[in-house]
Design goal:
The chain has one domain. The chain contains 20 helices and no strands. The two termini are 39 Å apart.
Length: 437
Amino acid sequence: MQPPFLQTLAWLMAGLISIVILTVRFRLHAFFALLFACLLVGLGAGLPLGDVIRVAKEGFGDIMGKLGWIIVLGTTLGVVLENRGSTRVMAGFILRVVGERSASLAMSITGFVVGLPIFCDSGFIVLSSLSQTLATKTRIPLSVMAVSLATGLYSVHCLIPPHPGATSAAATIGLSIGALMLAGIGVAIPAAVAGHLWARFAGRKSTSPVAVSLTPDAPLPKGPSVFMAFLPVIVPIVLIAGKSLLTLGHQEDDFLSNLGTPEIALLIGVVIALLGGGGWTSATYLLRDAVEKAGGILVIIGAGGSFGAILAATKLGLQLGAALPLSTLGIAFPFLLTAGLKTAQGSSTVALITAASIMKPLLPALGLATGNGPLLCVLSMGCGSMVLSHANDAYFWVISRFTGLDLKTMLKVYTVGTLIMGLSSFLVVYLISLCIS
């Protein structure tokens, strides 16, 4: 017998609150927080314990089958580029093109480009010393330089595969990775621009702190040529985009289509990055390190798949769609839901994974189940996952610790910047929805 709607809704809210409390208050790993939420919501909604375990395991396996290779290969590409010095080569090239007089813009562009294959926290750690050096050399406040870099990285992290949150949301909703990559780049660009402009406005009167370093001084890797630095990033994007364009044009080309499969495209990018130099011993170490890093991401995504399967089994989406006038909210609902989860518990990845699980059964009620609806839904959630990055977000403290920016400056320049990024990018998604609906 199906429990009453309000009872099921109450258990869902209890599950979401438990995720926030366990991850924020008790610093519990997101995997265990999501696992606890699965048990709490499933048992509370009246599912037998055996069914809860079975459904959760099926959800875990399903999402792993869709995303396992993508996450591992995407992580590997980022690790190799970071270790081989490709990120610094890309940053140096962009700076030469843009010029030191526009150094903060160069940092924003660098963050955007480097952020395509590399997670935002890793990218910031690698490039933070460059932003500090340029701040000293150009006399531009460090808050402007650092936040320009941070927001460039952040815009990509929240919206574009193979980053785990966006990738998981696309798989859960049933959206093509290639389609999200193309559209996500288009939305992430104005988000990065908004973040950069706010950094220049809010940080212009700040006093730059003394540069700090939390890593041992070591000689920087020489790095590959500019061509070989960019190639591992460009090739996968072109291949994946090419497949999506072929699909849109209803053209059949098995060879190009297979090359554009995200797993194959990322694997090609990894091979190109490894060919940039470093030797076999270095390559084996990097591959092992990448797999270990990917493991922590995979278990969170798998637990998110379990939570989504539990929500589907409770049929809460159907009940919620029938009880509330969701059709009037449209793409605003996934934005607000994800923004609430992000602000409460801090992780954009966990916010996207959790929100996607809730949104999937609600797509028909929101009018987003057909046509471009799923794409607009995922883009809206990506925008929401930017709002707000503050003291419960690990990335917030990475920026603060590696630059020495105080809490007041971080909240004024960076946190408010993430709010502006989320709102401005959502406005772009809303305008897109008016054009393609």
